[in-house]
Amino acid sequence: MALTFRRAEVTDTAAAQQAYRLIIDHLAETVDFPHWHTENHPTPEEVAGWVEAGELYLALDEGGRIAGVTVLNHDAVDAYQEAAWTIEAEPHEILVVHALGVVPDRLGTGVSRYLVDAALQVARKQGCKAVRLDTYVENIPARKLYERHGFTALGCHTVDYEGTDLSQFHLFEYAL
Fold first, then answer.
1. Given its phi and psi angles, is residue 151 left (phi above 0), alpha (psi -120 to 50 degrees) or beta?
2. End-to-end distance of the chain based on CA atoms, in angstroms?
3. Mode of pairing for the β-strands spanning 94-102 and 130-136
4. What is the per-residue pLDDT for 18?
5. Which domains can be identified in the chain, with CATH numbers?
């Protein structure tokens, strides 16, 4: 399956919201490792805000349908300031990956690997020194994905995300 990667445009908002809804509903029916279903995350308003800010990126299949989604920016929660990162860098030198997901009918087809590779490419083009992210402690598939991609695992940290009771997240870093 050939994929393309690009920044979402305003005209993609509804389709991106629907992609996240499909992911959330699938998680509710199967195993909600990231707890997106229980937390109703992300909301349609969050998705629209990411599109407006130019932070939402899409993996599209040959037919132009969304196969995967992710948010890329330089915004890190406070817990990132306390972590023992391997690379010293200013916030604008770090690309942070958020809300990476694959639509259910594309699971197991390499879309998540493609999204991670594409995020690393964006970081390189922006001249970043590292890519950082966190994943909920119970999200074993995501943790394995990032470790297979060469991310350094920094262990479990307490991370406070507004609007959620979840607080234990694994931090990861990829040095560029």
1. beta
2. 27
3. parallel
4. 97
5. 4-175 (3.40.630.30)
